[in-house]
């Protein structure tokens, strides 16, 4: 049995599908009672658990020998992950695959790197076998701009430099392999897409897919932070996001890892293919 925390998220949703395709016995764990029915309709066993409720977390792990853990970006994410790790250990889980972030390590200086590193060390010290999946920015993030791109023919660039965007489905596929395959214990998998793209290159891909001229418009850090807070993001997280984005103009987010192809024996999905696949969302 595999307990999947974050089952309805950007990674969790394709992970459930990947595990089901592999024939794995799984339990979808969600914090929202309102999502139980939809998950059960997909044929999944479901547990409702609150990251702040250790007892519910332990119940979500009962009978499972493996677990996948991802949490939303939140100031409490370190405590949430600590709670799940402890609950999993009490429930007898043997192996946990946890999603953190590319570059997270004890040497990290950025806020997200520090937060992720602290939870990585907790997992390593827990007595559980562990595997870390450490992705960069998700390609799926562009869907948050789909309406603006379709209506205004503008791609808003809050990064200002090249990024080796990764498809969340590839993250899920690597996690599924780590949960069902062998030899993944004690491994940290940095995950990126096959190439680094800047805003002009992304707008060119959008233009080609939609048949309209899409232009890139830079967004300054203060405006980016304000927009994230307005959308409901905690201010501390928005500040950390701006801090991370500041690496892009220096080229620090452009490195390409081959991990996806190494683990899955196939190429990583490309940004171009994602835009073509979803061109209708952008008005194409």
What is the topological layout?
Elements: E1 2-5, H1 12-21, E2 26-30, H2 36-41, E3 45-48, H3 54-61, E4 66-69, H4 77-91, E5 95-99, H5 111-124, E6 129-135, H6 146-152, E7 154-157, H7 168-180, E8 187-191, H8 199-210, E9 215-218, H9 221-230, H10 235-245, H11 259-264, H12 271-277
Parallel strand pairs: 1-2, 1-4, 2-3, 4-5, 5-6, 6-8, 7-9
Helix pairs in contact: 1-7, 3-4, 4-5, 8-12, 9-10
The number of helical segments is 12
Q: Uncertain segments of ≥5 residues (pLDDT<50)?
A: none
- Quantity of strands, as a count: 9
Biggest sheet: strands side by side, in what order? 3-2-1-4-5-6-8
SS strand fraction? 5-15%
Distance between the termini: 42 Å
Question: Which structural category fits the helices and strands?
Answer: alpha/beta
Query: From the alpha-carbon coordinates, what is the Rg to the nearest angstrom?
Result: 19 Å
Largest sheet: 7 strands, parallel
Outline type: globular
The chain-level mean pLDDT equals: 96
Helical content class = 40-55%
Secondary-structure element order, as H and E?
EHEHEHEHEHEHEHEHEHHHH
């Amino acid at each position: 049995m595999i307990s999947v925390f974050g089952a309805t998220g950007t990674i969790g949703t394709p992970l459930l599908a990947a595990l089901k395709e592999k024939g794995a016995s799984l339990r979808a764990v969600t914090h929202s009672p309102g999502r139980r029915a939809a998950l059960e309709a997909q044929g999944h066993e479901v547990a409702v658990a609150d990251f702040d409720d250790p007892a519910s977390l332990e119940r979500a792990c009962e009978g499972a020998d493996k677990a996948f853990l991802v949490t939303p970006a939140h100031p409490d994410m370190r405590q949430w992950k600590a709670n799940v790790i402890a609950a999993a250990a009490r429930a007898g889980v043997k192996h946990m695959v946890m999603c953190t972030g590319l570059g997270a390590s004890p040497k990290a200086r950025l806020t997200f790197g520090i937060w992720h590193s602290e939870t990585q060390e907790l997992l390593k010290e827990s007595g559980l076998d562990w595997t870390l999946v450490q992705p960069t920015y998700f390609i799926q993030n562009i869907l948050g701009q789909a309406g603006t791109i379709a209506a205004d023919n503008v791609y808003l660039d809050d990064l200002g430099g090249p990024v080796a965007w990764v498809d969340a489905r590839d993250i899920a596929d690597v996690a599924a392999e780590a949960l069902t395959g062998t030899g993944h214990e004690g491994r940290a998998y940095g995950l990126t897409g096959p190439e680094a793209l800047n805003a002009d290159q992304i707008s060119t891909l959008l233009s080609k897919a939609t048949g309209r001229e899409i232009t890139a418009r830079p967004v300054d850090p203060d405006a980016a932070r304000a927009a994230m807070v307005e959308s409901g993001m905690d201010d501390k997280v928005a500040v950390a996001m701006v801090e991370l984005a500041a690496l892009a103009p220096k080229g620090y987010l452009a490195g390409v890892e081959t991990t996806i192809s190494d683990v899955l024996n196939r190429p990583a999905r490309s940004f171009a293919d994602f835009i073509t696949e979803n061109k209708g969302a952008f008005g194409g």
